[in-house]
Specification:
three-stranded antiparallel sheet, 3 strands, 30% strand, elongated, alpha+beta
């Protein structure tokens, strides 16, 4: 929800993501390849993944919420 309410909070990377659906240790695990040299993902099948957070924006918003008088 914060990504919708606070513009610029996250930096995104587009990757192809697969979900492991077989029963076992990794069932339900989302898998994306972040190794160097992987071609850039374009077109259908690519999703945006938040890979970094702007800590200063987060901190200011958190303080704003803590001190507001509703």
């Amino acid at each position: 929800m914060a990504s919708l309410a606070i513009p610029g909070l996250f930096t995104y990377t587009e990757k192809q993501v697969k979900v492991e659906y077989k029963e076992g240790y990794s069932e339900g695990l989302s898998i994306a390849d972040f190794r160097p040299g992987v071609p850039k993902c374009t077109g259908p099948g690519c999703v945006r993944i938040a890979t970094d957070i702007d800590e200063s924006i987060f901190f200011v918003d958190m303080l704003r919420n803590l001190i507001r008088n509703d």
